[in-house]
Amino acid sequence: MKLGETLAFGAVVAIILLALMNGMQGNFKGVMAVNYLTTGQTALDYRTLARQDAQAHGIPADLYERQINQESGFNPNAVSPSGAIGIAQIMPDTAKGWGVDPHDPVASLNVAADHMSWYQSKYGSFDKALACYNAGTDALEKAIARYGSNWRIGLPAETQRYITAIMGV
Fold it and tell me: What pLDDT is attached to residue 44?
């Protein structure tokens, strides 16, 4: 075998091994990595990755994609005036608690989807999960305690706009 053929064969073997490993683990991100290897694409498609994370964590992919777009416009280098970092706009203290580097867009998208799934499960709806993500669980719980089914009016105006921008209502 010539050097070029050996390298091509090695790349094919690596792709097959990666696909097999990810198939056993049910890992969608590995399948994306195979796609990047076979297509020559060098940049991650964060929108697709966000949708895959949403599906893996059982939350609505369309809404999660809108959420990340609202948070950072899918900019992995975004920093808010309040200090939220990265594609999922995670505050540094929150990132520590979640065990994630907010500068890592792949890990941030996954951990944010995981927490949105938990919030949705605990509070019963995606709009309430958005309230938790944006204003915190304390703010949501106080709004529910005070306003019941009209809980949204008890949230900060910024959070009300955030929910409306993502949910469309």
Answer: 81
